[in-house]
Amino acid sequence: MMVDASFAQSVTMHEHKQRDTGATLREDEKKTQGAMTYRIFHRYDIGDRGIHVIKRNAEAPDAFRVAIYCLRKDDEWFVPATSRTILSNFGMAALLISFYGYDYCQPNEFAQNIDLYLSHDFPARFGDAEQIANDPSLHRDGLRDLMARFREPI
Fold first, then answer.
1. I need a labelling partner for 8 at 20 to 30 A (CA). Which of 15, 125, 128, 140 fits?
2. 38 has which bridge partners?
3. Element (H, E) at 124
4. How many CA atoms, within 13 angstroms, populate the side-chain half-sphere of residue 96?
5. Domain residue limits at 43
6. Contact 64, 122 (CB under 8 A)
7. Residue-by-residue pLDDT tens, the chain, 154 positions
8. pLDDT of residue 97
9. Cis omega (within 30 of 0) for bond into 80
10. How many domains does the chain have?
11. Whole-angstrom Cα distance, residue 111 to residue 54?
């Protein structure tokens, strides 16, 4: 998987910032932050490969709705042609960060879990998946190109 240098640099700088500030959060701050934090993972990951992201502002769309949208678009654009690959956890995080107002953050025990394996169960909580997949407010130019860079073998 190829990642451009500026994106990798921002990830590295953010991870450094997390190490500097993460230990000072109190329990109540963690709970408050947890309401805006999401852990992206896949039920069948080997080891903990979860990626944590947090909303940068209140206007950012709900991460579950974005996940449904992106996974439906992933199915539309890449499956079955590349049915031996899936969108990675890191890829979903990159989409949230690049297009939807999220940022990487330190792991938070109160984060909401987005299990990409159970993505087809999300609509029960958030409405009709087809309606979400066609929501023009979630469309972003360049989404497909970035998504293609974050596919991994299954």
1. 140
2. 53, 112
3. helix 122-126
4. 34
5. 5-153
6. yes
7. 444 545 444 444 444 444 444 555 676 666 566 567 899 887 676 667 788 999 998 899 999 889 989 988 988 888 776 566 778 889 999 999 999 999 999 888 888 888 887 765 565 666 677 888 899 999 999 999 999 998 877 7
8. 96
9. yes
10. 1
11. 9
Q: Which residues pair with 103 in a beta bridge?
A: 54
Beta strands in 4-154 (DSSP E): 37-41, 51-55, 85-87, 102-104, 112-115, 151-153
Q: Is 138 helix (H, G, I), strand (E, B) or coil?
A: helix
Q: How far apart are CA 110 and CA 148, in angstroms?
A: 31
Could you tell me which residues are beta bridge partners of residue 104?
A: 53
Cα 39 to Cα 49: distance, rounded to the nearest angstrom:
10
- Whether the Cβ atoms of residue 68 and residue 122 lie closer than 8 Å to each other: yes
